[in-house]
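DM from R.C. (forwarded with permission)

"hey, sorry to bug you on a friday — could you get me a structure for this? deadline for the figure draft is monday and I only need the backbone to look sensible"
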Amino acid sequence: MPDVLLSDTVAMEIGAQEPWPQPIKLYQPYEVEQILLPDNANCLAVQAYLKMCGLEFQIEPRSNAEYMSPSGRVPFIKCGAFVVADFDPIVNMVSTRGSSLSGNLEPTDKADMRAYISLVNNVLVNAEQYVCWVDPATLNSVTKPRHGSVYPWPLNHLLNWQKRNQIVKKLSVLGWYNKTLDEVFGEVKNCCTALAERLEGKTYFFGDDGPNELDALAFGHIFTILTTPLPNNSLANIVKSYPILVDLCKRIEARYFQRTEDD
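My reply, with the result:
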């Protein structure tokens, strides 16, 4: 009997009928010497979401994690027979297995949540990539040494060049490459303002009962921006000017990562 090829949707539905294989394996670059700000933010967001869902996982650092990934992006998880990459597809897969954190939201709130997730992805992610791959100071002193650190010469230079070309093409299509640093920082400030207004008076973005995927995604990016040393501290300084967002990060870190400011 010939093999049957299943669509991703059908595969997800079949997978939803099976129990979670434990633990989940989460693949990402090495944190200390290799990972860059945008990838670190995405990896932390996925870690936070899995923790919020109460799912156990093992972090599997790999120097070639992005080349192992089915999408070329990190992180990705291996869950039984399934390999899923990127924050949104991972959230969707978890949801199909009954671990949705936003299932009880009203339809209007779900639409709002998706809009804010899109805002984070369209602003913070692009700003992080711009700072790492376009800003000369960060590119030369941080990005190139870290991204190429796990590869021998001259492969490290070749892969840095290929990666930068890839990011520049993407930012050009999205209208970000020709922005100035001040314009990029202005976009980040507007994004933080919108997030802070949504969070005003609440423990999490959609109430006090508990976090959902927006909280996980915002935590991943804001926490990483706050804790990543860069030649230009403007990104971190912008976020620090919104104490309500900083406090959200502290709550999530303390609750789900069991760390406090004294650790």
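R.C.: lifesaver. The first strand starts at residue 24 and ends at 28.
me: no worries. The beta strands are 24-28, 57-61, 76-79, 82-85.
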